[in-house]
Predict the structure.
Amino acid sequence: MTVIKFPPPANDRPRQYPPMFNIPPLTLWVLVAFVAVYAVFAVMPEEMAQIWGYRLAFVPARYALPDGFDIWAVVSPFTHIFMHGGILHIAMNGLMMLAFGAGAERMLGAKRAGAMFILCGLCGAFAQLVFGWGSPIPMVGASGALSGLFAAMCLRLMQTGAMPKGRFGIWGIGALWIGLSVFMAFAGGAMGIGDVAWAAHVGGFLGGVLLMRLRYFS
């Protein structure tokens, strides 16, 4: 005698609902780092926050002065990525991380997306150094890193056919992204919002395009 087990009727099966927030782990930890660093500086005494904020921010003048190069010149290209200058700044970069970071992480995996994030942040800092040589104005934020993730995500979508390449491919998107970054730089200054490091946006985007040409990321 054979016993056949039939599946329960559809109405009797337990329903499985997708999670309300489905954030990949790397993206989530980066967002936590953004908020944690901002919170630490928010509760610091003002004088201490200014001292450490300047040390950990990326300052091009450190590399132009003979006696300016110190340990912070080595550390700040990494640490400036996780620092932000205000609620609006961290909110915008947080939304960009949710969009571009999560997309890149799902396409590349956590390890490659994490490497892309840091390397593009360094590319953004290098571009800021070149175009702002000798400037004492500190730069903070993940804009360069996020621009690189945006470029990587667009390239992967083009490779899979999910995004049309158009006539100019990634360079058409790059021109729009660079144009928007430059416009925001001038508009932000005119409206008193603050300076936008357009060079970091450009450097990060170009870094993302070049890194995607490497075998490790492709």
The mean pLDDT is 86.
